[in-house]
Amino acid sequence: MTAMVEPAVFDLATTPLRELNRTLHALRPDTNMRHWRVINPAGRHAIACGLDAPITVEIEGHAGYYCAGHNKQATVIVHGNAGVGVAENMMSGFVHVKGDASQSAGASAHGGLLLIEGNAAARCGISLKGADIIVKGSVGHMSAFMAQAGTLIVFGDAGEALGDSIYEARLFVRGSVASLGADCIAKEMRDEHRALLAGKLEAAGLAGEVDISEFTRYGSARRLYNFHIDNAGAY
Amino acid sequence: MNEHVKPPRTLPRFSATFDPYTLSEIRRAAATGIYDIRGAGAKRKLPHFDDLLFLGASISRYPLEGYREKCETGVVLGTRFAKKPIELKIPITIAGMSFGSLSAQAKEALGRGATIAGTSTTTGDGGMTPEEREHSKTLVYQVLPSRYGLNPDDLRRADAIEVVVGQGAKPGGGGMLLGQKIGPRVAKMRTLPEGIDQRSACRHPDWTGPDDLEIKIEELREITDWEKPIYVKVGASRPYYDTALAVKAGADVVVLDGMQGGTAATQEVFIEHVGLPTLAALPLAVQALQDLGMHRKVQLIISGGIRSGADVAKALALGADAVAIGTAALVALGDNDPALEEEYAKLGTTAGAYDDWHEGRDPAGITTQDEALAARLDPVLGGRRLANYLAVMTLEAQTIARACGKSHLHNLEPEDLVALTVEAAAMARVPLAGTNWVPGRN
Questions:
Q1: Which domains does chain A have, with CATH numbers?
Q2: What is this structure's pTM?
Q3: Cβ separation of B205 and A126 shorter than 8 Å?
Q4: How far is B259 from B166, CA to CA, in rounded Å?
Q5: Bridge partners for A158 per DSSP
């Protein structure tokens, strides 16, 4: 059994960001330094980006742009709000924002789970490529724009043009949707989709928090997959 | 008067405005209802490096011996911030072209040729293939709006990172790869369904504007521990401001692509009517670097219609640190070879004019995902041909530089040039040949 090790603390008020990220990047997969705390983040950009080790990084405050960008394996918890592009292009792991997230949360993320306790602004899950995003609040306009794969689950409402030009990503919204984007349509919730949604919520530790029957599924009508002049008005 | 003699008639006269090509396009549009899509860059006649001449040596400038005295060609890219700048033997790089638009064999050949020549090659919209990484000593990894195939492992595997804002063939336009070329491997790399028409984003998903770009570059540097040079590539539209903003955002290298730069697939109207010619764009970018005191500190790569050592020498004389070639590299591999004329004719075109690269039926096996066609291209032979071509371009540029008395290609300067046309003189900011007149300056 691995001995418990006290979290290492990085104080960004006194230590450069470069030193934090360099230290975290140097960790080997079998490191026993698995728990890290970052204090005084003060909205710094690019905190804990490019991680590739099974560690947990807790950020005690607000993070700026691209927190946990390109994450692999790691768990990154933001005890505050996150700026633009939190967990952008994440490959695997878990990013948990306890507050709200700014624009482009989880942009182009290929894998892993992004959980946002509050709201996410515009373009949440833009260009999504396989990750799961759960927003317990609402999401802004153009969310899941050109989303290719993965799942976006919204407990609250979605802004205008949800899922515009969507490919094969799956969207579940419990509240209202201001409008749907080009080629995005509401779809029937069959048992397989309810099971999928339940599985995603359970994996995120959210089983039982919401009534799955309250969600509507959205996805691609696949009418614009091959360009046809008669559809030009839809673009 | 003999009434049986026909009066003389004028010859049939084609309109300069409604020329035969224009008429054919109107007929095509009327029949199909969709704009024309094609590959390659602007085909219209544009002011270009052909409109410039070197003066060579004279009593006041003495030349270097052509076969004895050294004329260096090396260039170092990324000296501003990167811990590991790129050192190239020649200032001619291979521009970004995707696996998807090109066959895997073509990508491998580009890597092989660049490596033999001691230069870099570049990925494209769709990610990095193992073949091109394996066969490219120096590989630049593009980060594009679509983010297809983007991942941190390849960021770290790359030798440099190029944030693509735009390209010369379509400044302001996104990528396009039609269904014929979205085969299983391309689809998997791009996380797309097979056979769809892929129209990728024209804006990055998580940044807009120069202030965001600065933060994005910082993130890429942090992810790669500040080792890799970061390039910013822009299509030529507002090169003075784009260069200045790229420098402000922290770029190590600015890549500027003029409207003659090629594309795998774009609307004809976009290619021919949007952007600046390479010749017009380059001096504006150089001016921006000079105004900021960053010329030669942030390196400038120019592309778009570079074909010969003369073009290389002229681009460097105007202030570029290096050039990039795309279309010319494909021609070196065998694109549009007259030996394939019979097959081009079957496609309704002719060798030298074939540009339906988006259809994936390239008989040369270059712009295709058809396995049988792609297998026609031998990557080893293709690489050798590209290396030969790069060697010739380098020798040509050295020949000109020595004649101008320069011991390094980078010592070429605008003072070595004159222009053949008023337009080129104004754009290049060099005198009209035989005069001291630089239009717009004096």
A1: 8-224 (2.160.20.60)
A2: 0.96
A3: yes
A4: 11
A5: A139, A177
